[in-house]
């Protein structure tokens, strides 16, 4: 080998970006709030709960959700220093303490998350058809935990054993809320309506902008529509589950409203017609006709007579995309906006793949919920750092107008940036190589008054 290897006592770190995470976590209100819900007998040498929480968040920001991973940093001074830890917990202590946290700690994580998002609320809104909205997207994304005997793991609709958590995102990919559920739980699991109302209240605690709530057909129910109708300053798009309704009737209605010749070419073998209708909410059979509650429904009826490759079908296929909505947008605008929510699948991927959180670390469901809540904080901190780096205008190959960086990009280039820790005159300085592509934006971010 041409390069000679030697050991050195000079503190060198490969995780210089943790300094930015520690800066966000030094909030005293977080520490006080956590102490108030985790009462304990004071013992000398006992590691503080806030140190346990920061340690786990640090690991999650590095894509290491396993408790045992904390052992890798036992002899590395920078991990402890960057996160502001008094002491670094052992893997056993990390696991046991998180398992012992009461359910009330979920309020601690959510309150902190709200405060962090509120400080960066300028990133959460966008102008859509002439009005500025904070878009809130809700979706279920199963997590594969096959070949385990963890509590709550069961058969999911994705045809594997795992969990079926529900997530809410606000703006371009910031996580607003989550709930870990058994794999067999339906999207519209008991309590979903209350969870949606709680999520929208959390969003209103962050920003005064109008909300635009979007969810797929798994959450289609009269109760949810009524909850959304009652929400102040909130519009919604909720995809309908047409169940046993005849698609041909919807297609005929669309052609009648727009004219058979006024269609949209979807591809070489399909055409689409748009329509709208005020529909009576289900479950009002005993209500007088003139008192029944109606809600606007917009829809796209697609008639396919050939496959995209040009091969003709024996019989035409009809597909209906229908949405409950409170908006006055055209059906085309509603359809286009709903299709954009496919981006949420990328958010799930970043959580499960980039942060390696597909398989949760504990066998107990309550502990895994705590880890998922801490992961929400880590996820948003990484997302914010990515957005703030873009704001510097110095990120190689990126422009400030880009709305987000993938978490993997932030982790590889910022979290795992190498540095040398120098102590001199009671001060600590982190030296990073000026030739690193992200060195200048990192320095600009470190010197930012925010």
Report on this model:
With 450 residues, this protein is an alpha+beta fold. The protein contains 14 helices and 16 strands. Helix 3 (49-61) packs across helix 5, helix 6 (105-119) runs parallel beside helix 12 and helix 12 crosses helix 13. Strand 11 and strand 12 form a beta hairpin. Helices cover 37% and strands 22% of the residues. Strands 2, 3, 7, 8, 9, 10, 11, 12, 13 and 14 form a 10-stranded mixed beta sheet that branches. It has a 3-stranded antiparallel beta sheet with strand order 1-15-16, with no helix packed on it. The mean pLDDT is 91. This is IS1380 family transposase. InterPro entries: RNaseH-like_sf (IPR012337), Tnp_DDE_dom (IPR025668), Transpos_IS1380 (IPR047960). Residues 4-435 form the Transposase DDE domain.
């Amino acid at each position: 080998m041409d390069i000679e290897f030697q050991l050195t006592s000079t503190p060198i770190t490969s995780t210089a970006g943790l300094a930015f995470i520690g800066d966000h976590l030094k909030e005293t209100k977080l520490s006080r709030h956590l102490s108030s819900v985790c009462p304990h007998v004071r013992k000398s040498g006992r590691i503080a709960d806030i140190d346990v929480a920061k340690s786990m968040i640090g690991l999650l920001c590095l894509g290491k959700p396993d408790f045992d991973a904390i052992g890798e940093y036992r002899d590395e001074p920078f991990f402890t220093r960057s996160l502001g830890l008094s002491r670094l917990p052992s893997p056993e202590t990390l696991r046991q303490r998180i398992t012992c946290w009461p359910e009330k700690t979920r309020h601690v994580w959510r309150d902190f998350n709200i405060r962090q998002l509120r400080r960066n609320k300028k990133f959460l809104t966008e102008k859509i058809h002439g009005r500025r909205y904070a878009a809130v997207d809700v979706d279920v994304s199963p997590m594969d935990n096959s070949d385990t005997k963890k509590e709550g793991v069961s058969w999911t609709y994705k045809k594997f054993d795992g969990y079926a958590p529900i997530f809410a995102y606000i703006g371009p990919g910031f996580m607003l809320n989550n709930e870990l559920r058994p794999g067999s739980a339906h999207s519209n699991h008991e309590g979903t309506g209350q969870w949606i109302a709680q999520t929208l209240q959390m969003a209103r605690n962050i920003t005064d902008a109008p909300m635009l709530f979007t969810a797929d057909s798994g959450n289609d129910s009269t109760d949810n529509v009524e909850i959304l109708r009652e929400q102040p300053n909130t519009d919604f798009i909720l995809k309908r589950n047409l169940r046993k309704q005849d698609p041909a009737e919807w297609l005929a209605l669309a052609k009648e409203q727009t004219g058979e010749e006024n269609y949209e070419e979807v591809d070489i073998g399909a055409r689409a017609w748009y329509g709208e209708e005020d529909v009576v909410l289900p479950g009002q059979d005993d209500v007088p006709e003139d008192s029944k509650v109606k809600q606007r429904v917009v829809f796209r009826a697609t008639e396919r007579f050939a496959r995209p490759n040009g091969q003709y079908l024996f019989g035409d296929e009809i597909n209906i995309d229908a949405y409950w909505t409170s908006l006055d947008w055209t059906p085309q605008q509603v359809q286009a906006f709903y299709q954009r929510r496919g981006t949420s699948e990328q958010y799930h991927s970043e959580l499960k793949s980039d942060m390696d959180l597909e398989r949760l670390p504990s066998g107990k469901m309550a502990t895994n919920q705590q880890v998922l809540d801490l992961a929400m904080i880590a996820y948003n901190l990484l997302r914010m750092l990515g957005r703030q780096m873009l704001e510097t205008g110095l990120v190689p190959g990126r422009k400030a107008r880009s709305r987000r960086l993938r978490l993997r990009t932030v982790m590889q280039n910022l979290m795992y940036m190498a540095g040398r820790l120098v102590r001199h005159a009671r001060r600590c300085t982190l030296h990073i190589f000026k030739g690193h592509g992200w060195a200048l934006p990192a320095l600009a971010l470190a010197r930012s008054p925010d």
